[in-house]
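Subject: design request, 143 residues
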């Protein structure tokens, strides 16, 4: 599996271990973290209870690395970038996307994180099947 994908939700334990990995770093002055969570939206009177994510795994690494390169080129102070996107079923209220950008200074960390999240939503080859409380579903794309 791709280093950028995780089966099921991104758990608190996974997030905590990633943050713990920052301990002892001496070159980063700021870290910006984005967590994407599945919402329990009501659409046409039906509640979203989960999203089943599918990914074009052969393209994930290539596209993610390309986006990371673009962000690092734009924000020269960025030191490292981590991305984890769920595949499989993630229930409403669970985390499906983890992005962390570390930089020498907070400004580049926060701006680069926002830019990367927007790029991921636009270009990462991941598709969503929203599952409703009545067991119906609909496919949606990234936006």
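Subject: RE: design request

Done. Sequence follows.
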């Amino acid at each position: 599996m791709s280093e950028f994908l995780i089966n099921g939700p991104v758990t608190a334990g996974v997030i905590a271990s990633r943050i713990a990995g920052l301990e002892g770093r001496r070159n980063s002055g700021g870290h910006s973290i984005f967590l994407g969570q599945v919402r329990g939206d009501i659409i046409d009177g039906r509640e979203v209870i989960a999203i089943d994510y599918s990914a074009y795994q052969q393209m994930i690494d290539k596209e993610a690395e390309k986006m990371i390169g673009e962000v690092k080129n734009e924000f020269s102070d960025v030191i490292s970038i981590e991305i984890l996107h769920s595949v499989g079923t993630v229930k409403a209220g669970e985390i499906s996307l983890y992005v962390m950008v570390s930089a020498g200074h907070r400004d580049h960390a926060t701006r680069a994180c926002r830019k990367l999240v927007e790029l991921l939503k636009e270009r990462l080859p991941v598709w969503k099947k929203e599952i409703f409380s009545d067991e119906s579903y609909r496919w949606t794309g990234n936006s």
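The longest strand covers residues 78-91.
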